[in-house]
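Need tokens for this chain, all 214 residues.
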Amino acid sequence: MASLDEKLALLYPRSVKRGKYHRIFDQIKDITKNYHYVPNFDRYMRERIDEVLSGERDINSKKFDALATAAVVYELYRRDPTYFDFVKPGNVADVAVETFDYLLNQGKAREVYRRLEEFLEKPLSQIPEFQKLVEFIDKYGFTPYKEEISGENSLIRRSLDGNGGIITDGIAAYVKFDEYEGRKYNEKIERDLLPAFAKVIARKTEEYLKKLGY
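Here are the structure tokens for all 214 residues:
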């Protein structure tokens, strides 16, 4: 059975390694309050995930965004292994093809998913805040994007020049490219769904720290 230190090190490896547990409180505050969600499947997502998985950095708001999005990807893939068959050259930007290879074929999304479950000591399927995030991104992000591709609309041409912003483009398709409406849907993720899941992580973090005497 993993120790409390090992549990914390799943998401806060740098602080645990250096014995600076007080810094974890700053990370909790950051992941629950500071968001500007840009869920691009690009090299920055890969770098942020790698920094946590390698033990180089703790989670912060941007890294948590990347980890949560990766976990959403794995949840949808776990439910249906064909879900992301649309991610291929000609349908999404090359950087997104590379990132989904990283997430699924290289197993990074699965590792993120495993770490979150181990940290929370509960299957993510039993975390309502996470499942709400999954359902929202499925319905308003990925599904409209896939439908736009199958309809051979202008989104394909936009995606080829894009940075892997499939969720954002999916929302744009859902709201018929209305910038104001699209921003409201992105803000739903940014101000409601993602912080709600982050608070679940924060509460568990505080539980571990309290048991360690902090």
